[in-house]
Structure formats: structure tokens, C-alpha cells
Specification:
The protein is an alpha+beta fold. It folds into two domains: 196 residues, no CATH class; 297 residues, von Willebrand factor, type A domain (Rossmann fold). The chain is built from 17 helices and 29 strands. Strand 7 and strand 8 form a beta hairpin. Helix 5 runs antiparallel to helix 6, helix 6 packs antiparallel against helix 7 and helix 6 packs across helix 16. The protein is globular, with a radius of gyration of 29 Å.
Length: 611
């Protein structure tokens, strides 16, 4: 099974080669590596502060039995339980139509500490083209248009992306209606393979339903007849092979879709405020082809003593996507993103095409057969199996799933209603951020109400946050640059195994850093996170480095530039690099990105590099 660890580690295409110290004028400082992060001897007067409290913030939605958003709640109506322990709510606010509201019932002790990181909601609309049928895609695009217009009126930022074999950004985050509508129209015009997927699957299901296992042969030298066991095994074996091939295809399709969604989610981590992913596709199942095998198993149940078939529940666990969906949910929980999923399948149309002809003798004698034998393909329980993945990812991230309906306008309207009203809850945990994941449960004390929220939260350290900023910068080119960070590329050189060595220099004005006098030098420490976007549109976990900056006191000037050159081994088609830095003394961060020009490495250059 191709698990997420294998998939994501394959994108780790860059390797740290060496650091080179640079001097640039006017005057560019030398920066020396401090591997363990200790201060140089004689360094005095550096301010150090240790956090003794971690602040955990949650965005939650409350709905009633009908799924309608519930307003008018205060902090006294909520209860937060972390790892089985009740936590006191110290932060509280309401985000309604993009505006922060504090109820009159909130006391000063809570209101004074209530800080919503950002009221702007970022909504990423992701279309899974390999699963979408053209007709359904066009209908949902039209419905999403009104969804986007209402969101823009509330101050939301929208981005449009597609899974075209990789994560492809059609429109960057924007609140400009014309460009977003144009992006949605371009999605409607894109080719998609969902029609072929559904058609081939429907033909296989028809083959299963219309297959004939029963064949009687005359027993030699007798008037009796008997079942042809060889024929039964041959027929069953042929169908099993086709079902297993379909399972392999479906597994790869859904696994790839999860990988693309994960790339998007991880890149959202460096953006503050509420984040929503509207994932639009069809049949995002956890157990691929489970519906087909169930039909086959029921069809062949009469011959179980002969065929010794694996039970469907056991068969489905041989190649499921549980681990991949768990990984995606964890990524969403770690970055604070909520998934709302629309399964755009037209189930009415699918059931209308399920008349596979008159029943065979096998169906008539099969005691396991269910439903109307004349329309065997109209088993609605199969549809729930096809949306297990959608259900899970929505539940785990505090979102919702809309499925089994032609009313796509109503689906997006229900999602929009839940997004309009969001409760911001926060609590404090003793001790500095530890990078650990905790289970969280939020309850409402009023009856018949349900809370949607993340099931787990990550208590991010400073290094986690810096890595998130670098990923958002390399994917979306979004982020702050208060330190004035800039990147410059040197001349690429041939590296080992067909790769290239790129020299990337990052520069920071000295006046932006807090460098303390220590003997004959001014010293400080920065942490850098390096993220790359490879040629296949994937990112790896950023590489973290801790660097000391030491400038001779007689050359220390406010207009000097501190610089560091990093040599990285990359694939020739690497698209972009981003670096985030944090001044360890001031705590300020900056990110910058640099687009890279793909280079070709000749065989001669490869040979020289290997020598």
C-alpha cells in the first residue's frame, strides 16, 4: 500500500550541501553557524523571555437538529475538555458576517483577553477533476458562483484550485469578483475524466449483475446433471480480477486526490484567521470498489462452499485509505482548516441507469439477494459507502458534507449559513508551547445543539509557525516581511545524479535585527526555514537551520546588510524556493520567495560532477 509517508517523503528533493559566509557592501556582514544555539563567550545583556503559558484558540460552529446555525450563545454556554480535563475559557468572541462581535454578557476579564487573530476568512475552493462528471461539474460551478459573491460581501478572501494531476492554482486569494468568476468559468471549461470513470464502473456493475454462474452438465453414463464447477470458478475468477483492477484504479485516484488536498491544506497553515476548504468531487470513498465487491459477493453467495470468497468487510480492509484520510485530517487540524465537502454525484440519475435487465437464475435461487430483483442496481445503501471519506474528513475538521442531492444551490447555501456565524473560543494551558497534539471536545450546555470543531489541536512551537509561514510563502507567495528579507540566486552548478546545486543568498538589513554587543562583535541568532516547490507541484517539510550572526563592532553600521549563502541540491525543474527567518531576540519573522528557472544538466556536466 502506498501510504502518505512514502508519498510525502518522495517530494523531499533538496538537500543541504554547505554554508558559505558572504561579505557584501555597504557593508555586508559575516554570519557564522551556531549548531547548538549557544551564545558566544563574553556576550552580555541579551534579553531572554520564556513563555510559561500556551494559548489555544478554536473556531467552532453550533447547529440545531435541522443543521441550522445557532446564534446568541455566550462563553457560559460552552465547555472545553482537553485530554479529559476541563479548561477555563479565557478568550471569546463571535465572528458574524466577517465582523468580530463581543456579546454584552461577556465579562471584562474575558473580553480583555479576547483576540481574534484575523477576522478575514480565507476560503479555498478545490475541484477534484479526475472524479467529476462534466454535467455535475458545470452545475456545481454555477452554484459556487453565488456562494463566492455572498462571501465577498462579508469580506472573505477566495481562491480557486483544481486537481489536474497536481495542485493547480487557478486564481490566487482575492476578493475581486470579476477575476473569481472568470476563474470558475475556466474550471467549467477544463477537461475532466469523471464521465469515463463512472461509465466504466457502471459497465462493470452491469457485467456482475448479468453474469451467469449456473451451468449444468450431464453426468456421463447417467441421466442426471450436475453443476459445472470449473465454469463457476472461471466466471467468478474473471469478475474478481476485474473488480480488483477497479479497486486498484480507484485507490490510486482517491489517494492522489487526498495528496493534492493535503498540499493545499499544509500551505494554508501560515495564514491567520478562519480557513475553509470547499472540496468538490465525487465518490471519495475510504474503501475503493467496496460497493462492487458487495454486489459480486451477494451474486455468488449460493456457491460459497465452492468458491470460498472473502467476506466483504475483510476484503475492503485489504486496500483501504483509512491512513491517508487520517493524515489529511491531522494536517487540517494542525493548520486550523475546516473542510466542507460537496459530493456532486447525481444519485437519481445513477439509479435511473441501474436497470440491468431481467434477473438470472442465480438471482432467483440466491437467498442473499436483497431488493427488487428486476432493478438490482438500485440499492441506495451503496451510496453511503461511496462517501465515507467525505463524511470522515468533514466530521474530523468541524465541517459538513453535502451529498445525494441535485439541489446544489441549496447545498452551498447550507454551507454558507454555517460559515456566516463562527464562535471563537480560547483557553490557556500552563507551560510553553510543546508541539504536542491534544484531543479536544467542545460541548454546549443547552439541549439539542451540536458543536462542530476540530477533534485535535496542535500546540505549535515557534519552529512550527516558521515552517508554516515558509510553506504559505512558497505556495501562495503570501506572508509578511517586516525584516526586509530578500533572496538572490547565484549561478547553478551541476550536482550528483542529474540534480543541480543552487546557491541562494538571503539578505537582511542589520537595522532590522537585534544584535547585542559582545566584546569585539555584535551578535545575534536567527532561525531559517527553507521550503521548495518541486517540478511536480509538491512541497516537502521545510528544512530548519539555526544561524549565528556576528559582525565586528568596528564595521557595525545601521545600513549594513547581513547575508548568508546556502547551497542546495535540487531537481533541475524545481519551481520556487521560499525562506522564512525569525530573529531569536526580537521574535520578529519575515518570509520571501524566489521563482527559479528550470535548468538542463548535460551528460558532460553530470560526469564532471560525479568525478
Amino acid at each position: 500500500m502506498a501510504g502518505p509517508e512514502k508519498r510525502f517523503s518522495s517530494t523531499l528533493i533538496f538537500r543541504l550541501l554547505a554554508f558559505s559566509v558572504c561579505c557584501c557592501v555597504a557593508m555586508m556582514s559575516t554570519a557564522q553557524s551556531d549548531e547548538v544555539g549557544h551564545e558566544p563567550e563574553g556576550m552580555q545583556g541579551v534579553f531572554r523571555g520564556e513563555l510559561d503559558v500556551s494559548i489555544i484558540n478554536l473556531y467552532v460552529t453550533v447547529v440545531d437538529k435541522q443543521g441550522q446555525a445557532v446564534s446568541g450563545l455566550g462563553p457560559e454556554d460552552f465547555e472545553i475538555i482537553e485530554n479529559g480535563e476541563s479548561m477555563e475559557i479565557t478568550n471569546f468572541a463571535i465572528l458574524e458576517h466577517g465582523k468580530r462581535v463581543v456579546p454584552e454578557t461577556v465579562g471584562a476579564e474575558i473580553e480583555g483577553t479576547s483576540e481574534v487573530e484575523a477576522s478575514t476568512r480565507h476560503v479555498a475552493v478545490l475541484f477534484d477533476l479526475p472524479s467529476l462528471q462534466r454535467r455535475n461539474k458545470n452545475l456545481v460551478v454555477e452554484a459556487v458562483g453565488s456562494f463566492v459573491r455572498e462571501g465577498i460581501a462579508d469580506g472573505d478572501q477566495f481562491m480557486v484550485a483544481v486537481n489536474s494531476g497536481e495542485l493547480e492554482i487557478v486564481s490566487e486569494f482575492s476578493s475581486y469578483e470579476a477575476s473569481l468568476m472568470a476563474a470558475l468559468q475556466s474550471v467549467a471549461d477544463l477537461a475532466n475524466s469523471g464521465d469515463a470513470v463512472k461509465s466504466s464502473k457502471r459497465m462493470l456493475k452491469r457485467s456482475i449483475h448479468t453474469s451467469r454462474f449456473m451451468k449444468m452438465n450431464k453426468i456421463p453414463f447417467s441421466t442426471d446433471v450436475a453443476v459445472d464447477e470449473g465454469y463457476v470458478r472461471a466466471q467468478a475468477g474473471m469478475l474478481q480480477t476485474e473488480i480488483n483492477n477497479r479497486r486498484q484504479y480507484e485507490y490510486q485516484r482517491i489517494d492522489q486526490a487526498i495528496g493534492v488536498a493535503d498540499e493545499l491544506v499544509r500551505a494554508l497553515a501560515g495564514i491567520d484567521g478562519p480557513k475553509v476548504v470547499l472540496w468538490i468531487g465525487e465518490d471519495l470513498a475510504i474503501r475503493p470498489a467496496f460497493d462492487l465487491y458487495q454486489v459480486f459477493y451477494k451474486k455468488a453467495a449460493f456457491y460459497q462452499d465452492l468458491l470460498r470468497l472473502t467476506h466483504p468487510e475483510l476484503w475492503s480492509r485489504e486496500m483501504d485509505l483509512v491512513r491517508q484520510f487520517h493524515h489529511l485530517a491531522a494536517s487540517a487540524q494542525n493548520c486550523g482548516a475546516t473542510f466542507h465537502v460537496i459530493d456532486a454525484s447525481d444519485r437519481d440519475r445513477e439509479m435511473g441507469n441501474a436497470d440491468f435487465g431481467s434477473p438470472s437464475l442465480d438471482d432467483l435461487i440466491n437467498s442473499e439477494a436483497v431488493g427488487n430483483l428486476w432493478t438490482p442496481g438500485t440499492d441506495p445503501t451503496e451510496f453511503w459507502d461511496l462517501t465515507e471519506g467525505s463524511d470522515y474528513i468533514a466530521l474530523a475538521t468541524g465541517g459538513s458534507v453535502q451529498k445525494n442531492t441535485r439541489d446544489l444551490e441549496g447545498s452551498v447555501a447550507r454551507i454558507r449559513e454555517q460559515m456566516i456565524l463562527t464562535y471563537f473560543l480560547g483557553y490557556q494551558r500552563p507551560g510553553a508551547p510543546d508541539g504536542k497534539i491534544s484531543s479536544v471536545q467542545v460541548n454546549v450546555k443547552k439541549p439539542d445543539l451540536r458543536v462542530r470543531h476540530h477533534e485535535k489541536v496542535l500546540n505549535k512551537t515557534g519552529d512550527h509557525q516558521l515552517s508554516d509561514l515558509a510553506l504559505s510563502r512558497v505556495r501562495f507567495d503570501i506572508g509578511g516581511n517586516s525584516l526586509g528579507l530578500s533572496l538572490v540566486e547565484g549561478q547553478p552548478q551541476a550536482g550528483d545524479e542529474g540534480k543541480v546545486v543552487r546557491s541562494i543568498q538571503f539578505r537582511v538589513p542589520v537595522e532590522s535585527l537585534v544584535l547585542m554587543p559582545a566584546g569585539q562583535v555584535h551578535s545575534g541568532v536567527v532561525v531559517a526555514a527553507v521550503a521548495v516547490l518541486d517540478g511536480s507541484g509538491k512541497t516537502a517539510e521545510p528544512r530548519l537551520m539555526r544561524l549565528s550572526i556576528n559582525i565586528p563592532s568596528d564595521r557595525y553600521q545601521p545600513d549594513a546588510i547581513a547575508a548568508r549563502t546556502i547551497r542546495l541540491l535540487m531537481a533541475p525543474d524545481t519551481r520556487r524556493i521560499a525562506i522564512g527567518i525569525r530573529d531569536e531576540t526580537s521574535g520578529l519573522t519575515s518570509t520571501a520567495a524566489l521563482d527559479l528557472i528550470p535548468v538542463e544538466v548535460s551528460e558532460e556536466e553530470n560526469s564532471k560532477a560525479e568525478e
